[in-house]
Q: What sequence folds into this?
C-alpha cells in the first residue's frame, strides 16, 4: 500500500514533498492507485492524477479506521539533543502512541526546550512514521507544558510516573496497565524529577513505576515505556 | 557511581577519551573514587591518580558481577543508514543484550554492509551505553555473518525469526520466551527475508514470531524485539 498523508480532506492533492516522493522514489504515474489518510482515521483509496508536477487524486473509496481500544500518552522532559527528541517521536509513533507532550520541569532549561523541540519538525517526523508503519492516526504532540498545570489536568484512566528510588519497591509499568484504558506515563529529564515534582504527581493520582533493571537514557526510557504499555494492552 | 571501561584489567589507566572525560567533564582529581569495569563482569573500585594528563588508578576493591540468568541474542540485517545501526546498538545495550550479530541476507548488499557497519565504532558506542546504563558486560558484536552458516551454528535454547505473513497466525515474541533461557531473535532487512531464508531458518529450529500490530522499521523492530524478550524474562 502506497500511503500518503493529506490532513485537509477537501484538497485532493499531495504536498510538494509527497509529490516528489510519489514521482521520483516510487515512480508512480497517473492512473496508479494510492491510499491517502488525513491522520484522523480517514483512509481513502485514490487514483493518482499527475499534472505538471502536481500530484492530484480522485477518491474512489473511503473508510474510517476506528481508534484503538486503548490510548498511550507519553509526557517527557526533552533531552538536550534535538535528534534524540526527534527519534523518540519517530519510534514511539511506529510502535503506537496517541499523545506526546514535552514538559518543562525543574531540571529543564526552557531555552533548551525551544532549541531542541521544534513542533513543525516533530509533526513532519510523526507523519512520516505514521505512514511508514501503516497507521491512520497522527499522534498529537504538544510542547512547552508547565509541569504543575499539566499534571493537574490529566484525565487518563491510569496515571504513572517513571521513578526508581529503590527498584525492589516499585512495580514495572507493564503490570500497572489496565486493559482497554488510557494510560499516561511521565518520563523525567536527565537530572530526574525533583522530589517535589514526584510528590505533586502522586498527590494528583500518579503512581510510581519502574521501566526495568537497567538505567535508561530519557529517550530510551520513553520508547521502552511506550512499548511496554502497548505490549500490556496487546498481550493481555 | 563514575563508571569507566578498561578492557585490559592489568593496565590500571584510562584511555585518552575517558581520561579527558574524567578531568574535563566530571572534573575528577587525584584521590577521587572511580569504578572501572572490564566489560566481562569485573567491577573494580579504584582511587584515581592524575599524572601529566594520564589518568591512572589503584584498585582498592574488586568483585565479579554474575551474568544474568538469561541471554538475549539479536541478529539483524543492517539498515542502509549507519546512524540507524549505531543507535540500534546503543539502545539494545542500554536495555540489555548479550550478542548482536549483523547478517548478510539475500536482500542485503554486502558493500552496503561494509559502509554502514563499522565494528570499531559499534564497540565504542556499546561500551559508552554499557557504562551509561551501569552494566558490566559488553555485548559481543559481530559483522559479516553469512546467513546460512550463521543459522546452522545457532545454539540458543529458543530460536525465533520475526516474520509476519499474516499477523493472526503468528505468536508475539513475548509469549515464546522461556524463563532463564537464551533466546536468539532474527530481524530481517527492509525488503524482509526471502521465502527461502524463512524456510531455511524453520528447518533449523527457528519459529516465526510477530513483533506487534504495527509495521516497524528494521532498527525499531530490533529494539522492540530485544525489549520484549527482556520484559518476558523480568516479568515472568
A:
Amino acid at each position: 500500500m502506497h500511503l500518503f498523508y493529506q490532513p485537509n480532506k477537501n484538497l485532493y492533492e499531495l504536498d510538494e514533498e509527497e509529490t516528489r516522493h510519489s514521482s521520483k522514489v516510487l515512480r508512480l504515474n497517473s492512473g496508479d492507485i494510492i491510499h491517502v489518510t488525513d491522520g484522523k482515521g480517514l483512509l481513502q483509496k485514490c487514483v493518482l492524477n499527475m499534472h505538471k508536477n502536481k500530484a492530484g487524486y480522485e477518491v474512489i473509496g473511503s473508510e474510517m479506521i476506528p481508534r484503538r481500544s486503548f490510548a498511550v500518552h507519553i509526557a517527557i522532559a526533552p533531552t538536550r539533543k534535538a535528534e534524540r527528541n526527534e527519534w523518540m517521536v519517530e519510534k514511539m509513533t511506529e510502535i503506537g502512541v496517541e499523545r506526546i507532550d514535552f514538559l518543562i520541569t525543574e531540571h529543564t532549561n526552557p531555552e533548551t526546550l525551544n532549541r531542541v523541540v521544534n513542533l513543525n519538525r516533530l509533526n513532519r517526523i510523526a507523519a512520516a512514521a505514521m505512514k511508514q508503519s501503516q497507521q491512520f492516526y497522527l499522534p498529537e504532540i504538544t510542547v512547552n507544558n508547565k509541569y504543575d498545570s499539566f499534571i493537574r489536568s490529566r484525565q487518563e484512566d491510569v496515571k504513572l510516573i517513571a521513578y526508581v528510588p529503590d527498584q525492589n519497591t516499585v512495580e514495572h509499568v507493564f503490570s500497572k496497565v489496565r486493559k482497554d484504558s488510557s494510560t499516561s506515563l511521565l518520563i523525567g529529564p536527565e537530572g530526574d524529577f525533583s522530589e517535589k515534582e514526584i510528590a505533586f504527581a502522586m498527590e494528583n493520582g500518579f503512581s510510581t513505576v519502574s521501566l526495568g533493571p537497567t538505567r535508561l537514557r530519557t529517550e530510551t526510557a520513553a520508547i521502552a515505556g511506550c512499548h511496554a504499555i502497548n505490549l500490556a494492552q496487546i498481550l493481555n
Remarks:
- Chain A is about 35% helix and 25% strand.
